[in-house]
Amino acid sequence: MENFDLVILTESRFVNPTKTNEFIENIILENQLVSNELIKLGLTVTRKSWDDKDFDWSTSKYVLVRATWDYFDRYDEFTDWFNAAAKKTTFINSEALLKWNIDKHYLQDLNKNGVNIPRTLFIEPNTITTLANSIEKAKKELGFITTDFVLKPCVGGGAFHTYKFNESESLKQEAIFQKLIASECMMLQEFQENIVAEGEISMMLFNGEFTHAILKIAKPGDFRVQDDYGGTVHNYEPTKEQINFAIETVFAAPELPIYARVDIFKDNQGNWALAELEIFEPELWFRFYPKAAQVLAKGIKERLF
User: Fold this and answer.
1) Alpha helices in the chain (DSSP H)
2) What is the residue-wise DSSP string for 4-15?
3) Are residues 238 and 273 in the same domain?
4) Are 254 and 100 in contact, with CB atoms under 8 Å apart?
């Protein structure tokens, strides 16, 4: 049986697709750019879906988590696979760091370490409350001042189960709120006007060093910047202040990630704030700056081999 230095981890729809589109082609290109650079450094590399039942994960020294974007639809199944695979191989980033980052409670840890985050009320599963009561609690305990809010899960991505609503609509949203908190932790946040007005900046860092950035802008009439919802992506040159914010964020994590994406925006108070620190399976936009794939490959080789 063939052994590999590294598996680039993806999901089944991105492995030898019978039908393709621009989205799938971009994902395959992103993975290929990284694979090419790793191979240039003398590493043996393959690409596999996490749910490939025919692959023996002990045959790969490392697994680089990339576009596993069905994990939150199959979370229990993915978690079982992840825990089993972690006994046979080593993950990049580390198993401990990935487990910390997959749940957005990590925002609380970063905030304690000095990173500015949006005001957030975490509502744990099976909490006996209503949406209106949660809003009142957020106002009293966290100083919420807006009348528009966003509700989203602690585990998820791509704006999955993300809802924007006005306080006057809380009763209308109650049924979905109760359904969601019955099974998962949810986050209630103030709606951030500047994400719509100015967009969200994503900065890529490898071993704590900034390489490139993009600006994500929501389509007119929407608040979600993801391209799944019509958002657009643009090259962006961040300021030194923005880059420093991103660097300080990755160094505030429990350990320095080999790769990370830091998503920031200007909050309602006019301060830079962290939307998310993505060190699990972030899109890293190598196609906008292919040299970053070389930086990642070099960092992997130097730190792990």
Assistant:
1) 22-40, 75-85, 95-101, 106-112, 131-142, 174-181, 193-198, 240-251, 291-304
2) EEEEEEE-GGGS
3) yes
4) yes
Please give the residue range of the domain that contains residue 137: 120-191
**Claim to verify: residue 212 and residue 80 sit in the same structural domain:** no
Alpha-carbon span 56 to 138, nearest angstrom: 48
Max intra-chain CA distance, the chain: 62
Lowest mean pLDDT among 74-88, 132-146, 200-214, 224-238: 224-238
Decide if pLDDT at 2 tops 70. Answer: yes
| pLDDT tens digits, 138-164 | 999 999 999 999 999 998 765 567 888
Token pair, residue 158, equals: 């791509």
SS3 294: helix
pTM above 0.85, yes or no: yes
At residue 228, the pLDDT reads: 57
CA-CA-CA-CA torsion sign (225, 259, 48, 97): negative
* Within a domain: 296: no
* β-bridge mates for residue 37, sequence order: none
CA separation for the pair 150, 22 (Å, rounded): 30
